[in-house]
Amino acid sequence: MPATTLPSVMPNFSAELQQLERQALRRVRRIVSGAQGPRLQFDGKEYLAFCSNDYLGLANHPALIEAAQRGAAAYGVGAGASHLISGHMQVHEALEQALAAFVGLPRALYFSSGYLANSGIIPALIGRDGAVFSDALNHACIIDGARLSRAQVEIYAHGDVAALADKLARSTAARKLVASDAVFSMDGDVAPLRELAALCERYDAWLLLDDAHGFGVLGEGGRGALAHCGVRSSNVIYLGTLGKAAGVSGAFVAAQEDVIEWLIQRARSYVFSTAAPPLLACTLLASLQLIEAEQWRRTHLQALIARLRTGLASLPWRLAASETPIQPLIIGENQKTLELMQALLAAGIWVPAIRPPTVPQGTARLRISLSAAHSTEDVDRLIVALHAQRD
Question: Which letter does DSSP use for residue 251 in this model?
Fold first, then answer.
């Protein structure tokens, strides 16, 4: 009998990729040469870069490089096992103690990345009988962590405290967790942390704050958004990222003693992951010292933010309300945003175009990221280049 050809059930990725291309939504990786800094190289050319989350300019700091070298000499380059087997080194423990003391919470737990942290801690804290209340503009790692928890997920409008209060009041869930970015990664605004903490205390809910973009930048000594807003609550579970302002890699969660001990037992992304290389923990201890001691970095960064906002105020595109290093210039159309990015690249300036689904439809933007490593001349050059594209 002749062979029967069955219809293919495999997705036609070629056609779908072409569709992304037509919608100006296809992403492209650029291969960067050299170390992170205000100037980056790809395709054999140097660009003034406003695309890195290295907010304090520490990623290439000599003291951190030296600490990494000392760590490699002392511990090697791999942890060899998960933290619960034999991978929890003395320097990991020292780092966790230092991080807890730095943010003023009883205990901390070090993860290999912020994504792993949120995808592990939310399911560990909240299960099928619980509810997660999530800001509409939260980062993907919070969204995915909430989905993995199998809890009921309630989305509240961005920063809308009244809407959240109504949802909490109506909830009959056995456990409740409110999850929010502290500084929103694509808009740069700070969540209403005092109001969120008050609601969580009133309705007996956890408050998970992902301070990926505030740690090191906001608050006295760079202690983050909690210090910046003066929030202290035993309901808070604080997550800080260590690959942005800290200049290295990884993340940590800090909370009450029993919460951290429970996460050690039940956060699957922690239990079943090989520990991060101990040389990174050595480097992070050095980074914490610089974050606290070198206030001039935050002072300079705030001056650059003010200079940029003044310089771009008259452009036809909307500069989002942000007092953080994340300065989004909202263009709207995907293709126009790409064209502006390409025009800046032609002028030797790299500012990334951010499009859906990372941001809502119709809000494509140039995401300008400032660093303490930038100079006032760098910012002025960007201002001039953007004004040259206004027509």
Answer: E
